[in-house]
Design brief:
This protein is mainly α. It contains 15 helices and no strands. α1 packs antiparallel against α2, α3 crosses α14 and α9 runs antiparallel to α11.
């Protein structure tokens, strides 16, 4: 991979990782347009590894929140009174809510890396899940905040998150934000929960690919462009996070839903015309 392609893919990852539009879907489309084999182990590992940049951006952005939650969780382990702190419950929620997607990722690894990356699957998931997101976005009485999060809530959001690797067009953030809205959390809280829930699973997935496919990346894509794309994705993702939180504080997700449907239709048209392979 040359550096220009690495920068382009890093920008795509950074913009789309946290928006409810499917980062994997976008990366697969762009990778195909750049004539890469998205089903090859090298590109599969590359796609997973560069997510680390975006997730590290989330860690940096939410660092004070992460430290507060971690401290509260450890205090709760040692003190019964400390368990009354909502951050203690949130800590357990993030831990337990990350289990479903980890289990799905390990059990269905081969399916996710090949079959789930089919363009027809991505297009269908983009369009169909937009309906679910529309229903979620039009829920009434979205009044619950971060202090109202229960372990049950986190497990439900985690179960929704587990859908995203199987049907990449759904979008991890699209799935988790929808779950949060269905649970009556306000849009900012649902979005922040999506960030929190994504950090453990995506870091683990990226590090696992980096460790197990290091040689494959070295012999195919190359580590230099992989690192370049990871750094670029982190810088772009930080700006995207800041923008998204401002946006959802006063807007619904309608513009994203329109974009998802249009993108799904464009993919169908491109595949049907033979411009990109399914």
């Amino acid at each position: 991979m040359n550096w220009l392609h690495a920068v382009i893919l890093g920008i795509v990852e950074g913009i789309t990782e946290f928006l409810p539009v499917s980062s994997t879907g976008h990366l697969n489309i762009v990778e195909k347009l750049l004539h890469y084999d998205i089903e090859g182990k090298g590109m599969t590992a590359f796609t997973a590894v560069i997510q680390i940049g975006a997730i590290l951006a989330a860690v940096v952005y939410f660092w004070s929140d992460i430290v507060r939650i971690v401290v509260a969780w450890f205090k709760g382990l040692a003190s019964k009174d400390a368990r009354k702190d909502p951050d203690y419950t949130l800590g357990w929620g993030i831990i337990l809510g990350s289990i479903p997607v980890a289990a799905v990722g390990l059990l269905l690894k081969d399916f996710i890396e090949v079959t789930a990356r089919n363009m027809w699957v991505i297009a269908g998931a983009l369009i169909i899940w937009s309906g679910a997101m529309w229903l979620a976005d039009h829920q009434q009485n979205l009044t619950k905040g971060m202090k109202d999060v229960t372990v049950k809530d986190a497990l439900i959001i985690g179960a929704f998150q587990a859908l995203s690797p199987v049907f990449p067009g759904i979008s991890r953030s699209g799935a988790t934000i929808s779950a949060g809205l269905f649970l009556k959390f306000d849009r900012v809280t649902a979005t922040r929960l999506s960030f929190y829930m994504g950090i453990p699973s995506l870091v683990a997935a990226g590090l696992l690919e980096a460790a197990t496919e290091a040689g494959t990346i070295s012999n195919t894509v190359g580590w230099t462009p992989t690192i370049v794309a990871t750094v670029v994705s982190g810088v772009v993702a930080y700006a995207t996070i800041a923008w998204l939180l401002r946006f959802v504080s006063s807007n619904k997700f309608t513009s994203f839903l329109v974009y998802r449907v249009l993108l799904g239709l464009i993919i169908i048209a491109l595949v049907s015309a033979g411009t990109i392979a399914a």
